[in-house]
Write a structure and sequence with these properties.
The structure holds three protein chains of three kinds. Chain A is an alpha/beta fold. Chain A has eleven helices and seven strands. The N and C termini of chain A lie far apart (63 Å). Classes of the chains: A alpha/beta, B alpha/beta, C alpha/beta.
């Protein structure tokens, strides 16, 4: 019997949603398990590191790696899987662009540890102990992998063949990506699954989008009533559809929520936030500096809004936080 | 394909040579990728320099050229021409400004050299990504549409019409000539207005290249300079313009008299009428709202009486599409309504009239055949003329209308000629007497006519009320004292405002209005007859209050601008550095449409992607900077080119 | 900081601010040209936020965008479109650890060499006080 193709799945700094999207293939998963051998999937199978290391280089036909690279161990695992795999797909936004985990790059590792483990009101940590340091008894137990200075997307650590965007990717898209390899139709290097155009192109609300939009105040969904049958933007609610790759089936829009940009920017935009900044600025209904500032101030966190999913892949990458 | 970049550093005599380390710059430039030669030259812009450059480009088969020298604002065109003469596309050039922004302003040689080197590196990076742009041309229409057949519109039409440049002159009223045709005499020499304008009106009506459309207004304007499509609607006249000679037989028999609101119903006309005696075209028209037949009755007296069979009850409104290259809006002005301020008493007491109404009184073709009369039919014993009604006040119009002082002097003079014994007074706060002839006219009127001048503290320190059998004027004089006087008749010199239709017309033409409601100039100082939309001009009081010679001058000016831009038979060169949308990437999000100040971007019918009209695009690149998909590339200023220059500058 | 010479990427629009810069150059006005690196664009509205971010990424200490005065823009509203982007850009820079003083937008008319000299002088002085920041 000819060997079935081998597939591996791994999660780095991940919430588990991408794993869920694989489970959500439903019957498709059974089909997949029939068609291919899943040789490594720590979340679902009793996979061991030594089994992975025992494989020949390039023996795995396709590895799906989700999650961002936050810990040194994750970088090592990514490199290991790269050696052992013919094809690597970055699975989900964290692997594609850094994801929400990437927002950590607005701060230093030290700031993150102190905030999470010492300063958060719900934590009681009288000794001020931070993970990774030496503590009584720590020599005996497993060592926590250190945090890398900056969160990275998968392709900032290893060579990636294709990308499956989405937080999480729609199951259909995952299925499409996997089957493209199984059927021998691997797209060109660097291909991002999904549409080649922004979400507006396929959005059910596009018809109600007017040519001229002028906003005196930007609102968040909990601050206003809005007509769910009409485009968000003229109603003052920021939807990132114009700047975001489509292909998700507009599921957020159809659930009455504006697009948050999880599929990332279009091919030609090096920085997702920059793509959003100009179009949002163009909606400001003012032509004097004071009024422009006032309206801009109605967006409480532009950095978070623009780089929620892509900070490691943005031009400034979060910066070094030294001046401000 | 590898480029062959030639870098030329102009010494500009000693200007640049002495301010930087030339050897260092030449050496550094040679290091860059694709640079096949680097040379310096004394004065590249000299005839020798240009010849040298041209020969070099050809000899070394250069594909790109960088010139480091003076500002591109000085010589970019010069060097683009050199490239063209050398057989290289003129846009494959980048200039590094190492004179105005370097050699002339940096003292330390090492600092100047460092900056120059980086500017050159930036230019080399940039030039690699330049595209060979072509200058496209389009066929253009040189015909002109003039909106408004007053003195400004007529002046434009007559100045611009010729064998291969047709003019459409549209007018919303049934007759042409505008306000001037309704005047009696004009200051300062008291010439007869209708005599002045009559020859012009005749010329217009008989001109082979001018088509006059009365009762006509614009409905929609699409397109751009050289290529406008204007929809106009012509109301029905119900009288055949070729057949009718204006004999008046029809109005004699018309059973309907329509009262005109003038001084308590003094005037009236029939339902079929000619607006005033001497109106041109001398053709009747039917007022459908008052005509019995149009109310459903079986009246046809006019049809029976017409010896030429000119009556056409079945005529309907027509819509036409006019194809023109330019539009001139000469729609004139409106007048301040004094009822807006109770202090003037207009409408509250009889015999308080506006200066336009006074103009009708003295008009020999008017309702009183030129006699100045009160509503009771008797001549006034005294008349007061009040200046600045609605002018020079923040409350209404914060400007001087510029003509009222002079025409009020004219009116005072006309009153004196007719009423030698009457008391004639003028209430004013200042006197506006600009131009070569005004002062002389004022002195003549003052000396000969015995007019009394009352000077007010401010334009609005006056109150006019009904008295017993007369009109009471109370004013504050320059000492701050109140003074009271009585008059039989008061004439208010009302401000010249923008016409009531101006806003609607601006909307149709898609041009801006200024703060005071008149059409906004492209540049108030240097381009006063152009609107902000290319190809649409203005003339006359539509632009702002002015007198007749100025309106005529603007009409001629608009004609001049058009003749300079649109030559019949000559194609129009388009801006070469335009923006382009990649339909593969465009998602139809429409963000770019709202940003384009020239309305050059539109959604094509049925296509989900937008497209840019290359004839209307000006190449500013605002859309390219804002497209959230990065689907727009700005010609000659592409994102890639600017990134490349930036990286070259930073090193 | 002693000896620190900031480098400012300066975007100038073809119709107004570039002419203003040249006016300063021709008129022998004193301004810190050695600290400026000019990029000419047709309109200040062409300045894509990406240019600003990249400039900081590759080592610029400041970015100065100069456009036509309101009402004078050759393309009618391009300068206002540029202005509208600035407060958001400032916030993004701030959140990326870059003081928002490092980006500035101002209006410089074609003949106004004086204002050009003043604005560029002010910015260099401010950046010298701030010192360099830790680039990538």
């Amino acid at each position: 019997m000819p060997d079935k193709p081998k597939i591996a799945l791994y999660w780095c700094s991940s919430c588990g949603g991408c794993e869920e999207s694989v489970i959500d293939l439903s019957e498709g998963l059974l089909e997949l398990a029939e068609r291919a051998d899943i040789v490594f999937w720590p979340v679902a199978l009793d996979s061991r590191l030594k089994d992975l290391e025992a494989l020949d280089d390039g023996e795995i036909d396709l590895s799906l790696i989700n999650g961002a690279i936050r810990l040194r161990e994750q970088a090592r695992m990514a490199q290991l899987l790269r050696r052992k795999s013919k094809v690597i797909f970055a699975h989900g936004t964290c692997a594609h662009l850094g994801g929400i985990v990437g927002l950590g790059n607005f701060h230093t590792v030290q700031e993150i540890l102190e905030r999470s483990f010492r300063d958060v009101p719900t934590v009681r940590n009288l000794g001020g102990i931070l993970p990774g340091g030496s503590v009584e008894g720590s020599e005996r137990g497993p060592k926590l992998s250190p945090l890398i200075d900056k969160v990275m997307a998968l392709d900032q650590v290893i060579d990636v063949d294709c990308f499956i965007p989405g937080c999480p990717p729609p199951p259909e898209l995952v299925g499409k990506a996997v089957w493209s390899v199984l059927e021998g139709k691997l797209p060109e290097k660097g291909f991002v699954f999904g549409d080649g155009k922004a979400l507006c192109h396929t959005c059910p609300l596009l018809e109600s989008k007017p040519e001229i939009i002028r906003v005196k105040r930007f609102k968040r969904v909990h601050e206003t009533d809005w007509d769910p049958g009409k485009c968000f933007l003229p109603q003052g609610i920021i939807c990132l559809g114009p700047a975001t790759r489509g292909g998700c089936g507009s599921r957020c829009i159809q659930a009455n929520m504006p697009c948050r940009g999880c599929f990332g920017p279009l091919e030609t935009m090096e920085d997702h936030g920059a793509g959003m900044l100009s179009f949002i600025a163009s909606m400001i209904d003012a032509d004097h500096e004071d009024e422009i500032r006032r309206i801009t101030a109605s967006i409480p966190d532009p950095g978070g809004l623009f780089y929620r999913y892509s900070l490691p892949h943005s031009i400034l990458g979060g910066g070094k936080g030294t001046e401000t | 394909m590898p480029q062959r970049i030639g870098v030329y550093i102009c010494e500009c005599g000693p200007n640049i040579k002495d301010a930087v380390d030339m050897d260092n710059l030449l050496e550094d430039a040679r290091e860059h990728k694709d640079v096949v030669l680097v040379r310096s030259f004394g004065f590249l812009c000299s005839p020798d320099g240009k010849e040298f450059l041209k020969k070099d480009i050809q000899a070394h088969k250069l594909s790109r050229v960088v010139i480091a020298g003076c500002s591109p604002k000085e010589n970019e065109q010069t060097f683009r021409d050199v490239l063209k003469n050398a057989g290289l596309n003129p846009f494959l050039l980048q200039i590094a400004n190492i004179r105005e922004q370097c050699a002339w302003v940096i003292q330390e040689k090492s600092d100047a050299t460092e900056k120059a080197g980086e500017l050159i590196r930036g230019a080399i990076n940039r030039v690699r990504l330049h595209e060979p742009l072509e200058i496209k041309t389009i066929e253009c229409c040189a015909d002109v549409l003039v909106v408004g057949a007053g003195v400004a519109g007529i002046s434009t039409a007559l100045a611009v019409a010729r064998k291969n440049r047709k003019v459409y002159l549209i007018e919303k009223e049934p007759c042409i000539g505008g306000r001037v045709a309704g005047h009696e005499d004009l200051y300062p020499d008291m010439v007869c207005a209708s005599c002045l304008i009559e020859s012009q009106l005749d010329a217009i009506l008989h001109h082979n290249d001018i088509e006059v459309l009365t009762l006509t207004e614009m409905v929609e304007v699409r397109g751009y300079l050289g290529n406008f499509m204007v929809n106009v609607r012509q109301k029905a006249r119900f009288v055949d313009m070729e057949a009718c000679i204006g004999c008046g037989a029809c109005f004699e028999v018309c059973p309907v008299t329509v009262p005109m609101p003038f001084m308590g119903g003094m005037a009236g006309r029939k339902a079929i009428y000619i607006p005033y005696s001497g109106a041109l075209p001398n053709v009747a028209l039917i007022d459908g709202e008052n005509c019995l037949r149009f109310q459903g009755e079986l009246c046809h007296f006019c049809l029976e009486s017409c010896p030429f069979g000119a009556i056409r009850y079945e005529e309907t409104e027509r819509v036409r599409v006019l194809k023109v290259g330019a539009v001139v809006v000469a729609t004139g002005f409106g007048s301040f309504d004094p009822q807006k301020d109770v202090r003037y008493g207009y409408g509250k007491a009889e015999n308080i009239i506006t200066s336009l109404e006074f103009e009708q009184l003295v008009n020999s073709n008017g309702p009183t055949e030129g006699k100045i009369l009160l509503t009771n039919g008797r001549p006034p014993r005294n008349i007061a003329f009040v200046h600045c009604v609605g002018s020079r006040t923040e409350k209404f119009n914060d400007y001087c209308s510029g003509v009222c002082c002079l025409y009020t002097l004219k009116h005072a003079h006309q009153a004196r000629l007719q009423l030698p014994e009457a008391g004639i007074c003028q209430f004013h706060s200042d006197l506006c007497l600009p131009g070569k002839d005004a002062q002389r006219f004022y002195r003549k009127v003052l000396k000969e006519d015995g007019i009394e001048f009352f000077r007010m503290l401010r334009p609005d320190t006056i109150e006019i009320r009904k008295g017993t059998g007369s009109i009471l004027i109370t004013h504050t004089d320059t000492q701050g004292e109140l003074e009271r006087n009585e008059f039989d008749m008061v004439v208010l010199a009302t401000a010249m405002e923008s016409g009531v239709e101006t806003e609607g017309i601006a909307g149709i033409l898609d041009v801006k209005l200024g703060e005071n409601g008149f059409f906004q100039e492209a540049d108030a100082g240097l381009d006063p007859v152009s609107t902000v939309r290319e190809g649409i001009f203005m003339a006359g009081c539509a632009q702002g209050p002015k007198d007749i010679p100025s309106s005529v001058a603007q009409g001629h000016a608009a004609a001049g601008r058009i003749m300079g831009k649109l030559a019949p038979g000559e194609p129009l060169a388009l801006e070469p550095m335009v923006c382009e949308i990649d339909p593969e990437i465009c998602s139809g999000c429409l963000v770019c449409i709202s940003l384009c100040a020239f309305k050059a971007i539109a959604l094509e019918d049925d296509e989900p992607e937008v497209s840019i009209n290359q004839a209307m695009c000006r190449g500013c690149g605002v859309c390219a900077a804002a497209c959230p998909s990065g689907a727009i590339s700005a010609g000659h200023f592409s994102t890639g080119a600017i990134f490349s220059e930036l990286r070259g500058l930073m090193g | 900081m002693h000896g620190f010479e900031p480098k400012i990427i300066l975007f100038l629009c073809n119709w107004c601010s570039y002419e203003g810069a040249d006016a300063a150059g021709r008129g022998g006005k004193e301004f810190p040209s050695r600290n400026l690196r000019e990029i000419r664009v047709m309109c200040s509205g062409r300045v894509d936020p990406r240019f600003v971010l990249e400039a900081f990424r590759i080592g610029a200490d400041g970015v100065l965008i100069l456009g036509c005065a309101p009402g004078d823009c050759h393309y009618k509203t391009g300068n206002i479109e540029a202005l509208k982007r600035i407060p958001l850009l400032e916030r993004i820079l701030q959140q990326n650890g870059i003081k928002n003083d490092r980006i500035r937008f101002d209006f410089v008319s074609a003949g106004d060499g004086e204002k050009f000299a003043r604005v560029t002088g002010e910015m260099v002085k401010l950046l010298k006080r701030l010192g360099p920041f830790d680039h990538a």
